[in-house]
Amino acid sequence: MATKETKQRGRPRSFDRETALEQAVRSFWERGYEATSISDLTRAMGISAPSLYAAFGDKRALFDEVVTEYGRHYGGFLSRAVAEEPTARRGVERALREAATEYTLPGRPRGCLVISAALNISPASAEVADSLREMRLSNVREIAGAIRADIASGELPPDTDAGALAAYTGAVIQGMSQQARDGAERTELEAIAELALKAWPGETGQAVR
What we know:
Layout lengths: L3 H7 L6 H15 L6 H8 L3 H8 L2 H17 L1 H8 L3 H15 L10 H4 L9 H28 L8 H20 L4 H12 L12
Helix pairs in contact: 2-3, 2-5, 6-7, 6-9, 7-10, 7-11, 9-10, 10-11
């Protein structure tokens, strides 16, 4: 016979976990990690604090899950573009154009959560900042690896500075995210993307026109 304690543990949740997680994504995306409080989260997710802790753990554990969910549904376009396109330049070109669209889509927060959530983080949350920084640096390393592969194949000139070009691309993407949060429209970000691509060397080592 089931005890009262067993029945309590087996009681189904009174909320949809995926819907609540999506609302948490949007809360952190809009406000950043530090500025998003537990009360902000419970209000957005439509659940009580005990339910939040029971379903997701503490704020940090929830944020880790949010970042994974964000990458799955919104933020993985850069890695996909670099992996799927035949050259580094084409991968970056696709990623920049997709960034211009993704960062300005109506009906959801602007910019990139992995970039904006790290702003104004206190020393007490340094691990969160470090984790987000590593994600951004990982993207830069992916781009640099694709550039080096193109140098080795002759697609790019041998004197191409893979590290600097990848870091430049990362800086452009981060800047596009902030521009979007400041109100820039898709066409404005597309213009930035076009200018950024001119920094890429062509077959003769000259900037692409």
